[in-house]
Fold this sequence. Notes:
By secondary structure, the chain is an alpha+beta fold. The protein has 3 helices and 8 strands, in the order αββαβαβββββ. It has 2 domains: 3-77, GMP Synthetase, Chain A, domain 3 (2-Layer Sandwich), CATH 3.30.300.70; 89-146, SH3 type barrels. It is 25% helix and 43% strand. The longest helix is centred in the middle third of the chain and has 18 residues, at 48-65. The radius of gyration is 18 Å and the shape is elongated. The N and C termini lie far apart (43 Å).
Amino acid sequence: MDLQQAIEEIAVPFLSAIDAFMVDIHIAQRDQHNVVQLFVDTDSGITIGQCTELNRNIGQALELQDIFSKSYVLEVSSPDLTKPLKLFRQYRKNIGRQFRVRYRTNDRVVELIGQLNGIDGDQLLFVTKSNESYSILFNEIIESIEELPW
């Protein structure tokens, strides 16, 4: 089991207890220690208080498991707006928002900017400013990043 899997296995019970889920894990080397970043969310959005509680609980569990050979810093936060959506369940709470979407269709990569108008099964429904509708299968999406209005 690699380090990311071990961290996720330790974190899942704490996430499940507050109906949260893991979006991504980044582990980087900074100075003389590892920086472990856990990006977490809930279907309705995660609070700073929940991130603080998760940081404390997961940090204590990581200490008990002693999986790091040197010092580390644990950071638990929601994914920021510049990070692409990674999981299908992240889309539901983002209906109505504008996205830049890169996806595969007919063996080519296409990009569109459109508003996420809904979800139908495993299809995401987007409408562009020129009122063109697109239905894109989730597994065809390469990257989807929110377009900020400013």
